[in-house]
Write a structure and sequence with these properties.
Layout (H helix, E strand, L loop, with lengths): L2 E9 L9 H18 L8 E9 L4 H13 L25 H10 L4 E7 L2 H17 L2 E8 L5 H13 L4 E5 L2 H12 L7 E4 L7 H5 L10 E5 L7 H6 L10 H11 L31 H29 L13 H8 L3 E3 L4 E3 L5 E5 L4 H4 L18 E5 L8 E5 L5 H11 L4 H5 L2 H17 L9 H34 L13 H25 L3 E5 L8 E5 L3 H24 L9 H25 L4 H31 L6 H5 L9
Parallel strand pairs: 1-2, 3-4, 3-5, 5-6, 6-7
Antiparallel strand pairs: 7-10, 8-9, 11-12, 13-14
Helix pairs in contact: 1-10, 3-4, 5-6, 10-11, 13-15, 13-20, 15-16, 15-20, 16-17, 16-18, 17-18, 18-19, 19-20
Length: about 675
């Protein structure tokens, strides 16, 4: 005894108020697979699979109507809609590669694109996923337009105008073939737009677009396609289809009349004789070169068959062992089949099927090999070019982050420029007379001070909380140590008034470097003890605001935090006192005066920091810390180096040894 199970499938056989041979090929592939399974002695023995084909007319409401009719009254009288009503939105198809398309766009370096999608579930859902993935990939979208196959021509012209006027040179088309062709027809009227096209799997492999010269501007389009396959025996099966095999099948008659442009009713049309040969026909129905979707239909049928086979085998084994009563195939539920489908993996003569993995590959559309290989260089599509040296990015208001202006570097970046100036003029008197080695070290450490303010930005974590305070403490000690070393050099140099004095040999370059290292090691030891005993940690502040939770860094050991600040203050105070004592020493360029002023600003900033830090609630604490770091760094940078850069760049006649010595008769080198 053979049982009968039914497989139901929906196709859009009348997508544009006319019969679609391509969709009919999909339906016949279903029947081809079912006949193979029914003729197999290994798969589902004793069970025959049947089918019901429902025409969705590529119209979502009609597809839903047919589905409801199937569930409530699965008879054939409710399975087909009126072909004349086939005019609007397509049934929901499988969406392939929407997030992968974003990675493809990113791979080619395109961060400024336009997107057009079908105004239906396929296009809207696919584009929503693409936009989200693009955001994560750093790709910006200049415009997003949606179209439908029933839109008036004015709508299509408006979209064409947007595409042509936009600055994005890459356009992502998440469209079905039914929406794409009307849009490309309008695009072709004005010639090649010179754009790079990125396509979804619905149209990227369509041979119709390749063979039509009017769509030549689509050559070079890239996208992800469903893998192609070869189905042995399908071509012969399709060619044997004939309306006389099933006289009551209106779809077969409609198909025959469409492809041969005849009519079985006669009248004004050519009379269909039935002797016409499908083997001599060349159209989408007989085309065996693109079996991407038919292969998926074929695979889906076999997946259901294998899932049902495995399920029935398990039920039979349970029955034989007495674990359950006698079963019939009709007792199998749809959830049971779906659960088994997810675990199906089999190899047939046609292809390897693993439903857990849906493989796709990059497809490049071309007319012939010559046009494909015209250029191996990917076109550029960016909103703003990379900023040249000496400028930085400034995001344009109201535009995506990919759009920015290149503006001159701000003050926080000027330490790099100062270093370049000093490096170029390193052999001039003003640089040598003010201890060039410590000057370069100070510039480098000031750069680190500016950068350490970045550690205070972002969500606090265990590592960032420890890094921000220790980096701040150590980099500032490095800066103050260099300034202190320069101050000591000035004092010793001007106190060595006797010609035979050799006091400078006791604080030469090696001793200066050692002093910087020694002062810094003390701060490092303080930081190590702090991190060992009670390090800073992320903390959820729920006390400052009742309606908000503020993520911030708790300093851990308050003693450790204030010890770090206190040591910096001690060095700054010592430096200020020494520089103040040396401010009136004779010289046309006495650096001690500028060090005194810089230390005055430094101390003023951190003295005002203390009450502001203690009284600032929540997130404002971080703002106060960043402000203190930047303000004190700016003070050191400008007060010490701005006068030197002024003479080097604008008063080069004063950059001489004679002018540096002024009225001083002693030729002192330091």
């Amino acid at each position: 005894m053979r049982f009968l199970a039914s497989i139901n499938l929906f196709f859009g056989l009348f997508p544009l108020s006319s019969f679609d041979p391509r969709e009919f090929q999909f339906a016949q592939t279903l029947i081809f697979a079912l006949e193979e399974i029914n003729n197999s002695s290994d798969l589902l023995p004793g069970l025959s699979l049947g089918y019901q084909v429902y025409d969705s007319c590529s119209y979502a409401p009609l597809a839903i109507h047919s589905a409801l009719a199937l569930m409530n009254s699965p008879g054939p009288e409710d399975s087909l809609g009126d072909p004349s009503s086939c005019s609007r939105s397509p049934a929901v198809l499988g969406i392939v590669g929407e997030s992968t398309l974003a990675k493809l766009v990113k791979h080619f370096g395109w961060n400024w694109v336009g997107v057009v999608n079908s105004n239906n579930d396929y296009g809207n859902n696919g584009m929503a996923t693409f936009l989200e993935a693009s955001w994560h990939e750093g790709v910006c979208v200049e415009y997003q337009e949606s179209i439908h196959r029933t839109d008036p021509r004015e709508k299509l012209l408006e979209v064409v105008k947007v595409i042509r006027r936009a600055t994005a040179k890459v356009v992502v088309l998440f469209l079905t073939l039914g929406e794409l062709i009307p849009l490309m027809n309008e695009m072709a009227l004005e010639g090649d737009p010179g754009l790079q096209w990125v396509g979804s799997e619905a149209w990227i492999t369509a041979r119709l677009l390749t063979e039509n010269k009017a769509y030549g501007f689509l050559r070079g389009a890239v996208g992800f396609a469903i893998r192609n396959a070869r189905l042995d025996g399908l071509e012969g099966f399709l060619q044997k289809v004939h309306p006389f095999q099933a006289p009551d099948n209106t779809l077969l008659r409609e198909f025959w009349e469409t492809v041969f442009k005849c009519s079985f009713e006669g009248g004004s049309s050519t009379l269909c004789l039935g002797t016409e040969s499908l083997a001599k026909l060349k159209n989408q129905y007989t085309d065996m070169s693109e079996l991407r979707i038919p292969n998926k239909v074929y695979t889906a049928v076999y997946a259901i068959a294998h899932a049902l086979h495995n399920l029935l085998t398990d039920l039979k084994n349970d029955t034989d062992s007495g674990k359950r009563p006698v079963y019939t195939p009709q007792q199998v539920s749809k959830p049971q089949i779906r659960q088994n489908i997810n675990n199906i993996s089999y190899e047939s003569s046609h292809s390897l099927l693993t439903l857990k993995h849906f493989c796709t590959f990059i497809y490049i559309k071309y007319t012939n090999i010559q046009t494909c290989c015209i250029s191996l260089q990917a076109p550029a599509s960016v909103c703003s070019e990379s900023c040249p040296t000496g400028t930085r990015k400034a995001v344009q208001k109201g535009k995506p982050v990919c759009c920015y202006d290149c503006v001159p570097c701000g003050e926080g970046e000027i330490s790099n420029i100062t270093a370049v100036v000093f490096s170029i003029h390193k052999d001039t008197p003003i640089v040598r007379a003010n201890n060039s080695e410590l000057s370069f070290l100070l510039l480098f450490f000031l750069t680190l001070c500016f950068l350490c303010s970045l550690t205070f930005i972002g969500r606090p974590s265990e590592w960032s909380c420890m890094l921000r305070h220790t980096a701040f403490g150590i980099t500032f000690v490095l800066c103050i140590s260099c300034v202190l070393g320069k101050t000591i050099v000035v004092l010793m140099a001007f106190r060595a008034t006797l010609p035979a004095s050799n006091i400078m040999k006791w604080f030469g370059p090696p001793q200066q470097r050692l002093s910087v290292l020694a002062f810094t090691l003390i701060q490092v030891l303080i930081c190590v003890l702090w991190l060992t005993v009670s390090p800073p940690f992320p903390y959820k502040n729920m006390k400052t605001y009742k309606e908000k939770i503020i993520l911030e860094c708790d300093v851990g050991s308050a003693i450790g935090f204030w010890a770090v600040l206190g040591y910096i203050g001690l060095l700054a105070l010592l430096c200020f006192v020494l520089a103040f004592l040396a401010r009136k020493l004779p010289d046309n360029f006495n650096e001690a005066k500028f060090i005194t002023f810089s230390m005055l600003i430094f101390c003023a900033v951190w003295i005002t920091f203390l009450p502001a830090y203690v009284s600032s609630p929540g997130k404002f604490t971080v703002a106060v810390e960043i402000f203190a770091i930047l303000a004190s760094s700016f003070g050191l940078l400008f007060c010490i180096f701005a006068p030197k850069c002024f003479i080097i760049l604008l008063r080069p006649e004063q950059n001489t040894k004679k002018h540096m010595m002024g009225k001083t008769s002693n030729d002192i080198r330091y």
